[in-house]
Amino acid sequence: MSTALALRSVGLTWETRRGQLEALSDVNLQIDDGEFVALLGPSGCGKSTVLKLAAGLIPATSGTVEVASEKVTGPGQRTGVVFQKPNLLPWKNVLNNVLLPARTAGLPVQPARQRAMALLELVGLADFAGDYPFELSGGMQQRVGIARMLLHDPDLLLMDEPFAALDALTREALMLELQRIWGQERKSVLFITHSIQEAMFLADRVLVMSPRPGRIVEELAIPLPRPRTLETLADEQFMALCQHLRRHFTDA
């Protein structure tokens, strides 16, 4: 199996007014093709920084970052990114928001439009293609963001706490939705979260980061069968695995 993303001995140090700040230290992780990996950790540990490194938005101070076995030197077409807020353009309708990456990716107009409509169908928003962001709920806006991420058919999806700003019921609905989309698309995913339940429900493996300077302190394979349902949240094995991970954040 080939490797979708690899960070090898990655470190990152910021220059601040007060001197150097070590954000990441000796981070090693690997995601195989088609694998869903969640990166779990406390606020400020560097989770989002890892995602920005993978996306080519910032360079590492040390170590190497590779996507599809090629060194990352900047943003590329192999990756798609969704952030906590979908950042939709309010003056464009849903369809045109999904089409935003088409120009930068150099996609032909008509095939891109057809794919955008197919993606809106995939995320359950085909009937809202002509609506504007202010007419959508927060969960619907985030689904537009997911469709936009998929437009140029990236191999690797990078998701930075995409459900963090949503209420609990909407988060549960979107966890199911994302699982369904991933099951159909089978993309490789790096999913950043501080929610133990979210990580456990969605991922094949969960990687746990330490407080700053962030590093990987545990890798846990999730043996729960798919597709997972809301009943999975009450499963004894699910709860036991959650409790196992919780010790990283409750130990004195």
From TrEMBL:
Keywords: ATP-binding, Nucleotide-binding, Transport
Ubl conjugation in keyword set: no
A Pfam family the protein falls into: ABC_tran
Lineage top rank: taxon: Bacteria
GO molecular function: ATP binding; ATP hydrolysis activity
CDD domains: ABC_NrtD_SsuB_transporters
Segments forming domain ABC transporter: 7-236
InterPro entries for the chain: AAA+_ATPase, ABC_transporter-like_ATP-bd, ABC_transporter-like_CS, ABC_transporter_ATP-bind, P-loop_NTPase
Entry protein name: NitT/TauT family transport system ATP-binding protein
Entry's transmembrane regions: none
Family named by the database record: Belongs to the ABC transporter superfamily.
